[in-house]
Design brief:
alpha+beta, Double Stranded RNA Binding Domain
């Protein structure tokens, strides 16, 4: 089963360049290995990616922000990162989304196994 997804971009406070979009595309593509689990939920899987500066006033410190929202049917996951550089913020948000996708996937698998185990025990007794 092939997993297809759509990426919506929102770039605020900085220039939207093809290099930035390509970088985000490669990071989101790394998450594709988890999407086959969510493909059964719905046909449409959506990543909303927002990157940019938090403010134009500050020149130093944590001014770059990356946010990734994932939606597949009834599953809604979110990750956010604020860093002093744009690409590390994207990397950290991707890592957090990776963690959220893995956590949700294993949680649903464990719940199904627990139910099957309980059913098996009931059938034995």
């Amino acid at each position: 089963m092939s997993s297809t997804y759509k990426i919506n971009y929102l770039v605020t406070g900085i220039d939207d360049t093809p290099a930035l979009r390509a970088y985000v595309d490669t990071k989101i593509a790394m998450l594709e290995k988890y999407l086959t689990h969510y493909a059964g939920e719905t046909k449409e899987m959506l990543f909303d990616v927002e990157v940019g500066k938090t403010t134009d006033h500050h020149r130093k410190g944590m001014v770059y922000r990356a946010e990734i929202n994932f939606t597949a049917g009834s599953v809604h996951l979110r990750s956010e990162s604020v860093q002093d550089a744009l690409f590390p913020a994207i990397d950290e948000a991707k890592d957090e989304m990776d963690h959220e996708l893995r956590k949700t996937k294993t949680k649903s698998i464990d719940t199904a196994r627990r139910g099957a185990r309980k059913l098996k025990d009931n059938l034995r007794n």
